[in-house]
Amino acid sequence: MIEAKALTKIFEIKKGDGIPAVVDLNLSIAQGEVFGFLGPNGAGKTTTVRMLTSLIGPTSGQAWVNGFEVGKEDQEIRRTVGVLTEHPGLYERLSAFKNLMIYANLHDVENTEKQVEKYLHMLGLWSRRDDPAGSFSKGMRQKLAIARALLHEPQVLFLDEPTSGLDPEAARLVRSFIEELGDQGRTIFLCTHNLNEADRLCNRIGIFKSRLIAVDTPANLRQEIYGRKVVFHLRTLDTAWRNLIENIEGVRDVQLVDQKLVVGMEDPESLNPKIIRLLVENGADLLFVGELRHSLEDIYLQTLEEEGEIKDEL
Amino acid sequence: MNFKSIRTIIDKEWAEVFKNRMVLFTMIFMPLIFTVLPLVMLYFTGQEMGDMGGVGTADVPAEFLSACSSDMTGAECMQIYLVNQFLLLFMMMPVIIPVTIAAYSIVGEKTTHSLEPLLATPISTFELLLGKSLAASLPAIFVGWVSFGLFIAALPLLGVTKTVINYIAGPTWLLAIIIAGPLMAIASVNLTIFVSSRVNDPRTAEQISTLFLLPIFGLLFAQLAGVIVINVMVMLSFIGGMILVDIGMVYLGTSIFQRENILTRWK
What we know:
The complex is a heterodimer. Helices cover 39% and strands 30% of the residues of chain A. By secondary structure, chain A is of the alpha/beta class. Chain A has a six-stranded mixed sheet with strand order 6-7-8-3-9-10, sandwiched between helices. Chain B is an all-alpha fold. Chain B has one domain. Chain B has helices at residues 3-17, 21-47, 74-111, 115-119, 125-157, 162-168, 171-196, 202-209, 213-224, 232-256, 259-264. The longest helix of chain B is centred in the middle third of the chain and has 38 residues, at 74-111.
């Protein structure tokens, strides 16, 4: 559905001198996948979206969206993708209905009025259809912009910061709508700063800072960076238990934190029973056992930090 | 070329822009003033015709005499001389009105960030530019033509003689209104697009773009100073010059109105 090969964009400041915004991006996103594109401000996320939606051309490399090549079949790409830009960019003096009618006509949608009505109902804006978009709250504007991106039923959607600046309730509404879109089998390219959102919605995540630093499922990224860890909550802690557990084959490391033992291991499903048995046999009062789950924020910051260190070394 | 897209852009522009009071004011009051002024002048000079009985062609600036035919009285020739200055007001309309519309439509899109979603639709850059240009130019051309039509229709009611009416509805004025006006509208819209790419305030864009009034003022002062007399030849030369300016301005407008330019370079 979306494929990029060595996609690069350099913004020329003066002849022979430029700022690399996107460098050597290789990416393959399958149909129906919700792909999270994470990166700090100025990382080149919007530039990537603009290239993939044929709004700007790449300096080098190639990309295909929906089977159409960027730079060669731009109009076909724009015809078949839906884009939610960073700013809603609505016509504030015009009604919600008129805003959508304009885009439905530009996309040559059949039964324009019915389609507009469908999405206004779907996003809960029907009762405000005749009000100027400028009178809408931030959340309503964002919903209207999402409706605008969907009018022509695109199979590929690019969403740039869809919940940015929204209050928690509006953000939740937008997120559940994105979830629904994902369930409908649409391919979604989601740029976001909200890491919990990415963790919840995305099948795979790409961490990006001018170049793609890491790409995988959230679970695999966690494992890759931190490995799997299990926390054993105890009533009292005996330091001797640490040595006992460390000697079990398959255990990577053991840390003592307050009244807890944090054990790093590859295969908790087979090792946990052994460890629990050992602790109980040695007089430990085991209160709870649970897997330590690093947040996506930890992964993101760790990845960017490592990338920074690598660059410094170079 | 997709005409539905062009029509949609025009419809959108008009729906948005005509909700702006400043644009409406420019579209209604300026043509009204520019039409009424020469009528008032013709009415009062007509009323004074009796007193102007003694006016002879000798009283008309010598350079202008070529514009008067031999069957005109001195008073009629004087009236034509005076009304000819107002022709330039009619020529200003297609410059001022589209500049106001285009400045608000393009800079407005920049400030509300609505250009990017628009550019993300299948519309081609040419269709978008053409739609925007037509949306700005058509009302100006229409208003210019209607104002001129009303002006002509009102002349007999004010007692203006047939000779003077025939002169006003003659080739010099018709060339100015029907051909020079639209050409000036095209040039001013494209200049506004260029200026709009550099500024973020519609009023600044408007002010800079009205530079196109300078050639008209040039004609006005040249005529008042007796350097030229606006006649068919002068008007044809002006039209020829405007065609060249239009070619340059359309090139400038289309080269600046490219997706990548708009998204990455427009300030």
